[in-house]
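Reading group handout, session on sequence-to-structure problems. Before we discuss, look at one worked example. The prompt was deliberately terse, the way you'd type it at a terminal:

> structure Protein GrpE

The input record follows.
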Amino acid sequence: MAKNKMKEKVIDTEPIKDDREEVAEAAQEMVEEQTGDKVTDQAAEEDDKSARMAAAESEWQDKYLRLVAEFDNYRKRTLREKMDLIASGGEDVIKSLLTVMDDIDRALDAMSKSSDIDSIRQGIVLIHQKLLETLHAKGVEEITAIGKELDTDLHEAVAKFPVSDEKKGKIIDVVQKGYKLKDKVVRFAKVVVGE
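And the output record:
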């Protein structure tokens, strides 16, 4: 009987072991399914993220290429405008000087027809004044020099001449007038300085 009880116990434990194994196998399968689902979900998320990143990269590349093309067009346009400005930059000044040139032509014509020196002189003075007014309207100013101290930013000393003490270091004569265009020196005044 003792053997029968042992058999019963053995018989009873075997199905329990089988149940445990089945439960363990079922649990393992569930874990694998869930893990597989998680892996599948993670893979899908990674694929989605990768697709979004690729789309963003493509969008940035497109923006970059458009910006480069836009800048290149801007550079070409400004270069073309600069060349046009250089080609026709003096046109306004030339147009204003043409009226003075017309006056000079009329004065020369009058000189050949008339012997009245005073009227010719007055005509030339008027032409000179008109030329100065035209240049002044364009921003050109004469550099005043006589009686001033030598300023190497405006004057070029071409000679020195002995003078009295009060005129030493000062400009006593102008060999060639100097001019400024707005604040920039276009031509330095060539002067004689007293020493």
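Points for discussion. First: The first strand starts at residue 140 and ends at 143. Second: Residues 1-88 form one domain.
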